[in-house]
Write a structure and sequence with these properties.
Distance between the termini of chain A: 20 Å
Radius of gyration of chain A: 19 Å
Shape of chain A: globular
Order of helices and strands of chain B: HHEEEEEHHHEHEEHEEHEE
Shape of chain B: elongated
Structural class of chain A: alpha+beta
Radius of gyration of chain B: 40 Å
Number of helices of chain B: 8
Oligomer: heterodimer
Largest sheet of chain A: 6 strands, mixed
Number of strands of chain A: 27
Helix content of chain A: 10-25%
Helix content of chain B: 40-55%
Strand content of chain A: 35-45%
Chain lengths: 353, 393
């Protein structure tokens, strides 16, 4: 699958002129993106806007990545509606899924998606959106640009997926005693922000004020504990009436921990995700990295080491990726989880035999 | 590991019994059980023999309980190729959880989940109980609705009976009111005839006599309009002046009261106040009260017969006072005068419905109040009516 980095939409349109391909465009937030240009052209472009994109060994806040697709993507225009059985997902065994990362319907959408995909389907993906945390139209097809939508990109190739985050236990267990969708209202029967603030301020030695919430919270995510000792990370991004607004749902009465990170552990986690996904025995064609934007904000300049740790495992296999608002990975052995602050590596491969 | 087990127990336990609607309650249980334990499909079958689940979430995996040996233990785990199937037996039905490619055995999970069977059974019973109660309530509501309908029908019948009774009295009143003008018309006709016989009828005289006849005919016509308007059903409230209500009532009953030497004094302090009401129904109330006063005067042969009608405005209401000096009502029975079929005039064909209907009209149709009290040598009826009117259902 051919892929290109372009500085602008105009550069991409020049590149694609005369081709009749179906394109997947991964657009960085700061790229001057004029949808009307795509809409007016003859190119068949599907895609989404993300805070940043990854190409080879770098991450970019500008420009876009264009990938030639073999299959036409499928748009789910309203994530809130149940997905019909006959939508055309039958027989698809691997797919990339992008959702509106600031939609309040992500959990129910993934639940509904799990019910209609094939029993052996493997998928990964993430949440599109911008770092302003204001919900905008970020998913597009040749016809229009949407919000609260999802884009499903089917592959004929096999996909291997690796997931890891590297965040470590700080405080817990705590109980999410009141929550509704992605709003965590109470922890241990107290206002969620009060509890969170107390723990984070004590550990960091810093104080929250009305302007620095995400600056501090990006280093202290929440983790939902599960029976197999895996932790699903939830990123608090805003405070609203003493409740924490998360990227992704928090079920009522979830047992949670407050987590903290260290740069070496996060970088090591990305490497582990790549190791899980990359099988040297297979014909690996392309590696797709879906990494949370808040890891970039946490790791800052060290984020290139995280990309480097993945490249270390995959060698010369082409690497593309997106920095997202929430990550998705599933191998059909359990429900589709929506992660935060996590590194997902998807390897598109075909068997050597 | 202990924390994970406690976490699973707490989260699963917290998901049970959060709704009294069975499908919603079970859905939450199945979603939590399957998500927390990694099942790819979860279903609830209401009865052990059911082959179709009442609630199902997750992957659509075909399952037929008949293929599995029945068992008496609280739960059972079956292995089938890459899948593991957990059946949790409930009091009547069962929960089915299907796991795929699970790295560890689900026996431990099954043991944890089986601890919740009693609570699930209790919650299902509670849901079923509520469902039964709702059905009973529905039936009860139907019965209440039916009874209310019957009461309304009875009430309608009573109004009709009362109107018929009033109509009898009306015919007498009409007859009385028409007697004089008809006599006058007859006399004028005779005068014309005499003048014609004696050749004294000129055009001017004829015109004068015909004008007199027309005057009487117009009087007859207006009388019949008053009676006809009264018998029209008031479907809509109208904005009226109290003086027009009193005038309407008096135009019907005035002659008869005069015939019985009853003097009526009206002190209408609310005459300029517009208020919304069902005019004819209010007139009927006045006619009932005035008719009763007339009967009392006759029965007790009172000499100096007086009725006073007063109106004032009080707290957004029109206050209407109708008093007489007919001797009052015996204190033993005064509390019963608004009861249906209660009458002191049995020998005089009293229906016992007049004051009952007056009370129904004032309280239920006009949303006001009515009471009766004895005063010096008589009674006073006090009626309060909202100026803004009422919404009739």
């Amino acid at each position: 699958m051919k892929n290109y980095y372009c500085n602008s939409i105009e550069e991409f349109l020049e590149l694609s002129r005369g081709h009749e391909n179906i394109w997947l465009l991964l657009v960085a937030e700061e790229c001057s993106f004029d949808f009307s240009l795509l809409n007016a052209s003859d190119t068949q472009c599907y895609g989404a806007i993300f805070p940043e994109i990854i190409f080879a060994n770098k991450h970019y806040s500008k420009g876009l990545i264009a990938i030639e697709l073999e299959e036409k993507p499928l748009l789910i225009e309203d994530m809130n509606a149940n997905i019909a059985d006959d939508i055309g997902l039958d027989g698809i065994e691997s797919m990339l899924v992008f959702v509106d990362g600031l939609s309040t319907s992500i959990d129910s959408f993934l639940f509904s998606l799990f019910e209609v995909i094939d029993e052996d389907c493997v998928l990964f993906g993430g949440g599109a959106g911008k770092l302003t945390f204001e919900q905008e139209k970020v998913i597009f097809t040749p016809d229009a640009i949407y919000k609260d939508a999802s884009l499903i990109i089917p592959f004929k190739k096999e996909i291997k997926v690796g997931v890891n985050h590297g965040w470590e236990f700080l405080e817990g267990p705590l109980v999410a005693t009141s929550s509704e969708k992605n709003i965590l209202k109470k922890i241990d029967y107290e206002d969620a922000y009060t509890v969170y603030k107390r723990i984070v301020e004590q550990d960091s030695g810093l104080k929250f004020n009305k302007d620095n919430f995400f600056e501090l919270s990006k280093s202290y995510p929440l983790g939902i504990v599960s029976i197999d000792n895996e932790v699903v990370v939830r990123d608090p991004i805003l405070v609203q009436d003493n409740a924490l607004v998360l990227v992704g749902d928090m079920p009522d009465n979830s047992i949670i921990n407050i987590l903290k990170g260290s740069k070496p552990h996060l970088i090591e986690a990305a490497k582990k995700a790549a190791q899980q996904a990359y099988d040297t025995q297979l014909n690996n064609e392309m590696v797709f990295m879906v990494d949370c934007i808040s890891r970039v904000l946490f790791l800052e300049d060290s984020f290139k080491e995280e990309i480097g740790s993945v490249n270390e495992i995959i060698g010369n296999t082409p690497l593309v990726g997106v920095l997202t608002l929430g990550e998705i990975a599933n191998n059909s052995k359990s429900y589709i989880d929506f992660y935060n602050k996590t590194c997902v590596v998807g390897v598109l491969c075909s068997c050597n035999n | 590991m202990l924390l994970q087990q406690l976490t699973l127990s707490f989260e699963c336990l917290s998901s049970i019994g959060n709704s009294l609607e069975i499908e919603s309650m079970i859905s939450e249980v199945l979603i939590t059980f399957s998500r927390k334990t990694g099942a790819v499909s979860a279903s609830y079958y209401q009865n052990i023999t059911d082959t179709l689940p009442l609630v199902k979430i997750g992957k659509n995996i075909e399952f037929d309980i008949k293929n599995y040996a029945m068992f008496n233990e609280p739960y059972k785990v079956f292995k089938e190729k890459e899948k593991e199937i957990l059946i949790l037996l409930l009091k009547q039905g069962y929960i089915l959880l299907i796991y795929k490619d699970k790295e560890e055995s689900i026996d431990k999970l099954a043991a944890i989940l089986s601890n919740f069977q009693d609570k699930i059974n209790l919650s299902i019973s509670a849901c079923e109980g509520v469902q039964k109660l709702e059905q009973l309530n529905e039936k009860l509501e139907e019965r209440v609705e039916e009874s209310v309908k019957k009461i309304h029908e009875n009430e309608k019948m009573l109004i009709s009976q009362a109107k018929q009774a009033t109509m009898g009295e009306m015919i007498e009143m009409i007859a009385h009111q028409w007697r004089q003008p008809i006599t006058s018309i007859g006399m004028i006709a005779n005068n014309i005839l005499f003048d014609l016989v004696f050749d004294e009828l000129d055009n001017d005289k004829l015109k004068e006599e015909v004008d007199k006849i027309n005057g009487q005919v117009m009087y007859l016509s207006s009388t019949i309009d008053d009676f006809r308007d009264f018998f029209k059903e008031s479907k809509e409230q109208e904005e009226v002046l109290m003086q027009s209500v009193l005038k309407g009532a008096m135009s019907i009953v005035d002659k008869q009261l005069k015939k019985h030497n009853i003097e009526v004094q009206i002190i209408d302090k609310a005459e300029e106040v517009h208020f919304k009401t069902f005019k004819n129904e209010l007139i009927q109330v006045l006619l009932n009260i005035l008719g009763n006063a007339k009967d009392a005067f006759e029965e007790r042969a009172v000499e100096d017969r007086k009725i006073t009608i007063g109106t004032t405005v009080e707290n957004e209401c029109i206050k209407l006072l109708i008093s007489d000096n007919a001797g009052g009502i015996n204190s033993d029975i005064i509390s019963k005068v608004f009861d249906p079929y209660f009458s002191t005039k049995k020998q005089k064909n009293g229906t016992g419905l007049g004051l009952y209907m007056s009370m129904v009209i004032v309280t239920e149709h006009l949303h006001g109040s009515i009471k009766v009290e004895n005063i010096d040598n008589g009674v006073v009826f006090t009626i309060l009516l909202p100026i803004k009117g009422v919404n009739r259902e």
